Amino acid sequence: MSEKSRNLAKQLKLVFKIFSRSPTLLFSLVVLLVYIIAALVVVLGFVPPLPPYKGGWEYMYQPPSLRDFPWYILGTEYTGRPLLLTIIYGIPKTLAVAFLSALITVGVGTAIGLIAGYVGGLVDELLSLAINVALTIPTYLLALILVVILPPELKTNVLVLAGVLSITAWASLARAVRAQTIALKRREFIDVAKTIGYGSWKIMFDEVLRFMAPFIAMNLVLSCVGAIYGYTGLAFLGLMPMTPDNWGVQIYMAIRGGGALYSDKAILALWSPIITIVLLQYALINIAKAMEDIFNPALRTYLQGEEM
Amino acid sequence: MNWALRKAIFSLAAWFLAVSISILIIVLSPGDPALIMLTGFLQQGIPYDQAVRMVQAYIGFSPAEPWWSKWLRYLLGVVTGNLGVSITYRIPVAQLIANAIPWSIFFVSYSLSLTVILGVLIGIALAYYRSNTIFVRSVTTVLTVFNSIPNWILAAVFFVYIGARWQLLPYMGPYSNDVTPGLNLQFIASVLYHYTLPTMVMVLTSIPGWAFGISAMASAILKEDFITYAKARGLPSSRILWTYITRNSILPIYANIAITFTWLLVGTVWLESQFLLPGLGSLLATTSGARDYPVMIGVYVILITAIVLGALFTDLTYGFIDPRARVGET
Amino acid sequence: MSLIEAKGIVVTFAIRKGLKKLPFNAVDNVDLEIEQGMIVGLLGESGSGKTTLGKVTLDLVKPTKGIVKFMGKDIRKMYKEDYRKYRLNAQYVPQDPYASLHPFKTTKDILMDIIKYHKLVHSDKEALELVSDTMIKVGLNPPEKYLNKYPFQLSGGERQRVSIARALLLKPMYIVADEPVTMLDASLKGAIVSTLKNAIQAMRTSLLFITHEITLLQYFGSQTKVLVMYLGRVVEQAPLGELLQNPLHPYTQALISAIPVADPKARASRKLLLRGSPPSPLSKPPGCPLSDRCPFVTEKCRKEEVVLKAISSKHLVACHLY
């Protein structure tokens, strides 16, 4: 094992130790791991392909059965496909959209905030104006319009969706990063970094950014939460392509087409995607809150000391 | 007053840029509504020239003109109050929006005031009883759970169960059919009753952010020297809490109000359409489903305007409350 | 040729009071010359402009007026190569050891990074050797004990030693140490100052030692050139020994009489007190900056500006009494 991978293993162990200090956090980590494993299983092709669409009342919202175990244990959904399978198929795409969107949001927000705060002057004036304008445009509102007007082939593109869902989401992070950068600029370690001869990029992206690492990491996770909200929420409005693997579409169909209003026929089709979404959001929010601890050098060394 | 004027000019500039950028994104995207509408009319067998004129009449700009001219023409329309004509309802967009605005103002301000009051109370309680681990843990857990439920999911669940299945509260429409709209007590009572469920969803899903924010801030203030000093002087805790914490937390509360206002306004898209309420949100949701582009873009512009006005309003009122805000700003 | 030469330095700051901006000169027409291998003490209270002057010589604060020369060349008009040479040769040890070390970086990260960034050596092993040598030099011995520690795990003294090691690592020709021991316990101060002195003398590095404690300057010997600053001006300049024996400026006399003395009888005889409250750069009186507090004030002091005049070849003072 090389030093790098050993180091990585050590880091992961440490992160796990931080999580295991609180049962809620441990639970959240396990939940997230289950989702990631499920996504990998789908991507690697270990899951049977979605069976073809079967119209007709007799196939929709069938009760659970042991047929093709385990795929029919939640019964079928509105296209007559096994519900469990469609939910699992939704995981990789949702996670991909969420993660890509969070990367764009945090990447753009951090870069703009850092540059505006560190460079200052006219650059700051212009970037601040851009931030202030973007702040007045709610992401989901513009995303809604774009999702409606974009041609269908673009709407299903993961990268386009990620871009749409982060269209102005970067602004609030950029504002916070800018304010923190301006405060950090006055710190003595930045003066020292200058005399050491570090260039602006090194100071911005190593010294200043490292200081904000917990905040940035927290925002990365919270941006995932936001993107999942938008991705499923816009689908629930019926504005996304009606793909069976979108949890928002599944809830929409369970209420509008499954008679969830009057009977328990579609109860599994209603609650399964809801629990899938809420569980994921709950886990992500708890993990976001833990970022402070993960990056806290005092806690890290304390836990490392326990090992010895 | 100079300061207020400067704020207003700045807001106007931000509004202009936000609307312009949105319009440009819309007309430059591969889904330029004018082109889509044109294609639709052409497919219905309408001759090209007539189709172009129809698009122009509905949305305010023509599919044949360059992007900058579309942008200028639409902006001019916004300024003069001409937002085009709805394709589905065949009436001016401005009229549709004017009918919707009072409902949204009522829904959002009602939810906002409840959210702020309850959020601040819970937040301060969390900070004040922070030594009571059981209280803090259980409240935090409940808040985190509500934080992780998207508002449209809570709306759907409440709609299905509290509304349709158990019939505990009204879940469709803004008031019952047997009252006459107007300034009478039955009507107002009916509206409040019908908005109970939607408002519950709004408030429950926006409280966690408030409670966590206020509690973090209040905890920080409780650790400050002047609190220790106040305790040392023997001031009762309740007095310390109200005079110091509430006074010191007015700025963050104000800053948060504008953000929550925006968030609730966007939330009406889901909530008003779920509970079949009139308003800007449901107008946007239904016309989006029907691809009624003139209404969609019109409502969008109005919502942006409302957000800018909301931010300006909180800025100005805060400036009047706390004179420190008027100076020190560049 | 001097290593560092600052001429006619003026730094104007503005503080905002309400909607008005009040400008004031934090440093007001100051000259400073530092020869190679020389130690210069810069003495003054907070608000005297001593830190700002130090930062001007490091190009961390841009002077409103005046030029700074490094080895005879104006640092603001240097070619890139020359500026880089200046940059790497002018290092800084700031006052607060808690704010000057990155909290998320270990000692090893902080020090190794510098070597790697400037590609000073070819291998990690060499870099580690260089880091260890420097750490031993500043009294962080054995280095292994400190390498993997985060700043919060170090004591104040250890942090300041890391801060000094960081400044020494590039083997600079010039170091500014801004109150490096102010935040430390009295028992540690001497040890850290001696460490700094030994390290820079071994490398023939120049040092600008900024402090408000005249006693700390005694570690550098009586020949150390000392500049006394008051409200942005240099009021007196002399070798330390001369300054202690024969202080000319009333402000210097007051500073020296404030040195704690063990003998209570001696104390009374040496006492010289300034009137009024500690100075603020915002309420600088016209004429001599000390005119509102000086016991020997005359009409001339309140009206006429004072300039630094030479009393002897090494002793300069800015006071109308001489």
**Name given to the CATH architecture of the domain at 4-99 and 172-262 in chain C:** 3-Layer(aba) Sandwich
CATH homologous superfamily annotation of chain A: MetI-like
- β content of chain A, as a range? under 5%
Widest beta sheet: strand line-up of chain C: 6-7-8-3-9-10-12-11
How large, in whole angstroms, is the Cα Rg of chain A? 23 Å
Class by alpha and beta content of chain A: mainly alpha
Helical content of chain C, roughly?
25-40%
Low-confidence stretches of chain C: none
The top-level CATH class of the domain at 4-99 and 172-262 in chain C is Alpha Beta
Strand content of chain C: 15-25%
Shape of chain C: globular
Total number of strands of chain A? 0
User: What would you call the structural class of chain C?
Assistant: alpha/beta
CATH level-two architecture of chain A: Orthogonal Bundle
- Note the gap between the termini of chain C: 30 Å
In round numbers, the mean pLDDT of chain C is 88
CATH class of chain A: Mainly Alpha
**What oligomerization state is this entry in?**
heterotrimer
Largest sheet of chain C: 8 strands, mixed
SSE arrangement of chain A, N to C: HHHHHHHHHHHHHH
Subcellular location (chain B): Cell membrane; Membrane
GO cellular component, one term (chain B): plasma membrane
Transmembrane segments (chain B): 12-31, 103-129, 141-162, 210-230, 251-271, 297-321
Domain ABC transmembrane type-1 (chain B): 101-313
